[in-house]
């Protein structure tokens, strides 16, 4: 079911600013001054098919069911791709986060920024390459990545959420030991040196939960540090944003993790969307080569998150306006997404 995004935003504004029907009296009396409004009350009520199919009402019912199942729970979003680089979609994403906050959900954003890193590397004349989907990260490459991700990219997102009426704080994985890593080796035999690419070993969930408890969305740049007390403690690590989002979601035991991508979701051999898959389904689809190439890492990040305890991992088409709102709230009590905005992975 595709929700009306305007309906969701209107409902969130209404729920976020409930009044009590009275105003303080200007007299010395302590009794409240009640505002009375008189309306003509119809003597008959008619129901019609058009009333029953009112899209706003149907959206409100679905949203209420979704919120009931997600009450007090955490949602982690990996933000990247066209959803980040297209200005209109970037604005709508920030609106989505602010709206989910107003509806009482705890939202964590982990962002990428590959195109921005590429542009800066080219500008400063630093070469880089990819191996197995990972950027080989020399110290020079990590310095540029940290400058881009922790600077303009991170603050544009947190600032955009605030401008949309939400609350957000930009962080990197180095702040308060948020993401502590060890060196990640690549290749099938783990012998390929990827430079300073980090594999997350520890997540400072206390810091994240403290911010969430205060109604603040952490916006996390995937730049980490070595583990406290280890020989590489002072090393700055570049972390794949999808991997970081999945690990953070798992450590938080999040209700959902959404990976916003530039694809429609997982497709079968007839190029039709498969809207729901289990981890076993994905293993079989990789085995029969339905899932190949660059889709394999995406589904791997999703299955890893689910195996860590996340209730549902969404590979979501971030090119769709208000994709985040639609996939979080369109599933009703079951909470399995809109059915058309991507693929949901569960155990």
Give a verbal description of the structure:
The strands form four sheets. Strands 7-10-4-3-13-15-16-14 form an eight-stranded mixed sheet, sandwiched between helices. A four-stranded mixed sheet has the order 9-8-11-12. A hairpin with a 5-residue loop joins strand 8 (179-186) and strand 9. It has twelve helices and 16 strands. With 347 residues, it is of the alpha/beta class. The protein starts with a helix and ends with a strand. Helix 6 (114-124) crosses helix 7. Residues 18-34 have low confidence and may be disordered. Helix content is 40%, strand content 22%.
SSE topology:
Blueprint: H1 5-16, E1 22-23, E2 33-34, H2 49-52, H3 55-70, E3 74-79, H4 82-85, H5 87-102, E4 106-111, H6 114-124, E5 130-131, E6 134-135, H7 139-163, E7 168-172, E8 179-186, E9 192-203, H8 205-213, E10 217-221, E11 223-226, E12 236-238, H9 241-252, E13 256-261, E14 276-278, H10 279-287, H11 295-307, E15 313-317, H12 323-329, E16 342-346
Parallel strand pairs: 3-4, 3-13, 4-10, 7-10, 8-11, 13-15, 14-16
Antiparallel strand pairs: 1-2, 5-6, 8-9, 11-12, 15-16
Helix pairs in contact: 1-5, 5-7, 6-7, 9-11
């Amino acid at each position: 079911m595709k929700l009306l995004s305007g309906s969701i935003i209107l409902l969130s504004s209404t729920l976020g600013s409930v009044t009590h029907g009275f105003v303080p009296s200007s007299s010395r009396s302590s009794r409240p001054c009640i505002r009375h409004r008189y309306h003509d009350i119809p003597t008959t009520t008619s129901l019609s098919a058009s009333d029953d199919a009112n899209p706003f009402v149907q959206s409100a019912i679905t949203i209420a069911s979704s919120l009931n199942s997600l009450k007090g729970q955490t949602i982690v979003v990996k933000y990247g791709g066209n959803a980040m680089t297209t200005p209109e979609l970037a604005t709508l994403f920030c609106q989505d986060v602010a709206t989910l906050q107003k509806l009482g959900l705890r939202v964590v954003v982990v962002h990428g920024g590959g195109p921005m890193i590429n542009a800066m590397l080219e500008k400063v004349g630093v070469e880089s390459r990819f191996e197995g989907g990972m950027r080989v990260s020399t110290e020079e490459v990590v310095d540029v990545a940290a400058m881009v991700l922790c600077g303009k990219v991170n603050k544009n997102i947190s600032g955009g959420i605030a401008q949309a009426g939400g609350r957000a704080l930009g962080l990197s994985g180095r702040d308060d030991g948020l993401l502590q890593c060890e060196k990640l080796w690549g290749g099938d035999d783990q012998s390929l040196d990827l430079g300073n690419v980090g594999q997350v070993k520890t997540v400072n969930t206390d810091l994240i939960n403290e911010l969430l408890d205060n109604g603040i969305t952490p916006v996390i740049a995937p730049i980490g540090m070595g583990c406290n007390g280890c020989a590489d403690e002072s090393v700055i690590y570049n972390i794949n944003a999808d991997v970081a989002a999945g690990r953070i979601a798992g450590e938080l035991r999040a209700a959902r993790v959404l990976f916003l991508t530039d694809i429609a979701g997982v497709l079968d051999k007839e190029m039709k969307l498969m809207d729901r898959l289990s981890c076993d389904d994905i293993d079989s689809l990789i085995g029969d080569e339905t899932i190949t190439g660059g889709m394999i890492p995406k589904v791997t990040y999703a299955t890893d998150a689910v195996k860590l305890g996340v209730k549902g991992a969404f590979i979501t088409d971030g090119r769709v306006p208000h994709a985040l709102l639609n996939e979080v709230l369109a599933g009703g009590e079951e909470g399995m997404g809109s059915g058309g905005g991507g693929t949901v992975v569960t155990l």
